[in-house]
Amino acid sequence: MSEELHDHDRGLSFDLPTLQRRKMIRLLAGVGLVPLVGCSSDDSDNSASSSSSSAGSSSSAASSGSAECETIPGETAGPYPGDGSNGVNVLKESGVVRKDITSSFGSASGKAEGVPLTVTLTVVDAASGCGTPKEGAAVYLWHCDRDGNYSLYSEGVTEENYLRGVQETDAKGQVTFTSIFPACYTGRWPHIHFEVYGSLEDATNATSITATSQLAFAKDVCDTVYASDGYDRSVQNMSQLSLETDNIFSDGYDQQLATTKGSVEKGYTATLTVPV
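Above: the chain's sequence. Below: its structure in token form.
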């Protein structure tokens, strides 16, 4: 993989409009001008917890002690979403609705290698106080591979469409994807992109996005995964970053830090509640 900074999420100047919008909303909320709903207290460091054993088999989690409910923070989709907003539209291709996103579908045959990861997102109605699952909604999820490349866009994988998929939420508001742990590439904290749609029909037609956000991983889990084979570049990139300095998560990540459990040998699970 090239040493140069990827175009996706490439820095403060690229994502400034999104960041300014989020910070302005929070500023106005602080003076009572904008009501916010969500399922955690406003970004506080003490709401995130993480633990790890030397064997790397423990969990990392973000939790909130607040009964309040806020919508998931909106984030940039980056320039490689594959949803038709920047070139190719994978959402309209037959086969994109799937649980296992490790392999490409259709005429492509590539497979993403890496530490196994199962991602479960629970979409809930923020207006109900996060108590009502959003059954029948849809989630489009995508992320980079072990080398930090995005299928459909990055050199060498433009003909692949792995690590992208859509699912409809069940009665619990949940979708679960089988994937691999993403890399840490230059300039960005390890993350996963996702878009929430009102229905599966909306998602496969790439219309009416309800929310766009990103999921983050805790440092101890990342350090353990990146010490395994194939993630050498991620070790160096991680050493230059923190959640507090990442250009997306620096303004708060409590609601986006996944609860992650497992091990390199058996794979990891990452869960996150997504109020919309």
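The first strand starts at residue 48 and ends at 50.
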